[in-house]
Here is the input.
Amino acid sequence: MDYFDVVNSRRSVRVFAEKAIEENKIQQVLETANRAPSAGNLQAYEIYVVRDNSIRSALAHASLDQGFIADAPVVLVFCAHPARSAGRYRERGIRLYAVQDATIACTFAMLASTALGLSSVWVGAFNDDSVRDAIKIPPTLLPVAILPIGYPAEEPGLRPRRKLDDIIHEIIKEQ
Here is the structure.
């Protein structure tokens, strides 16, 4: 699929077919996430792959009872790893760069999923401690995004976007 086709066909899907995802597709998604740019190439993030029903259910509960998380055959949890950025970038690395690294990796995974005929939805509404408990990670990691992935069982339409004139602000040097 052409890159622009991938971007234009990506939708947030919350209803997944009861169909397993081929392991090679999950591997491709993970390899693509691993290719994401990161601050200083420190790759200050961790990705947790969740296939277990009970853990997916715990993640759904931790995410304000968003049940579709439990329905996806695979859920990826992207966590910032601030300590990886701290040495080089100090406070900015801890507070910002590690989070950016995790979000960029999640975006790459989301687009790779679309390119492979899969669907996903970015979940950012959750209780950090409950997510940590569900996937048994240390408090030094910060859950940033949950990405349920599966074959779609719905086809959401295109959602409206802001006009470019509303979001683009060109800075022109005064003469």
